[in-house]
């Protein structure tokens, strides 16, 4: 006897992948405004945010404050989300480039980044951030900029 097709559920890998990508996209949209209060709505209360250099934050507002000291402003050009569903959580790798201005007003673009998000029960429980900013800052310092 043929069994009826099940409708997608949160345990369905395709649905979990789509949901996780939507959560990441909504979080990043709020983060780039920047609106750390709205961004926090997509994160678990005990979220772990780790920036390059091992800087640890527990709320998007802390990451926003760090970025405010590093850049006059910064935005992401999102290239894609690579989604890896798992039995208890889904991992989303968000890839693209950063553009904006350094604190002195000098514009920049093409600064590669990768953010790794772990989504569990519809919330971001972990965000890890890697980008080329440190290398670019060192290069600017070496050139006297």
UniProtKB/TrEMBL annotation:
Q: Which domain of life is it from?
A: Bacteria
Q: Which residue ranges does the record assign to the SnoaL-like domain? A: 24-126
The record, for InterPro entries, names: NTF2-like_dom_sf, SnoaL-like
Which N-terminal stretch is annotated as signal sequence?
none
A Pfam family annotated for this UniProt entry: SnoaL_2
Name the record gives this protein = SnoaL-like domain-containing protein
Organism annotation: Methylobacterium isbiliense
């Amino acid at each position: 006897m043929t069994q009826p097709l099940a409708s997608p559920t949160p345990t369905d890998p395709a649905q979990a992948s789509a949901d996780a990508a939507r959560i990441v996209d909504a979080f990043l949209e709020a983060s780039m405004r920047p609106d750390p209060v709205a961004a926090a709505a997509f994160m678990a209360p005990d979220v772990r945010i780790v920036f390059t250099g091992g800087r640890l934050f527990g709320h998007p507002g802390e990451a926003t404050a760090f970025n405010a000291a590093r850049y006059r402003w910064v935005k992401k050009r999102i290239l894609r989300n690579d989604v890896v569903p798992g039995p208890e959580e889904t991992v989303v790798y968000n890839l693209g480039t950063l553009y904006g201005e350094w604190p002195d007003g000098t514009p920049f673009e093409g600064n590669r980044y990768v953010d790794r998000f772990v989504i569990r029960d519809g919330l971001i429980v972990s965000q890890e951030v890697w980008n080329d900013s440190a290398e670019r800052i060192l290069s600017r310092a070496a050139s006297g900029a």
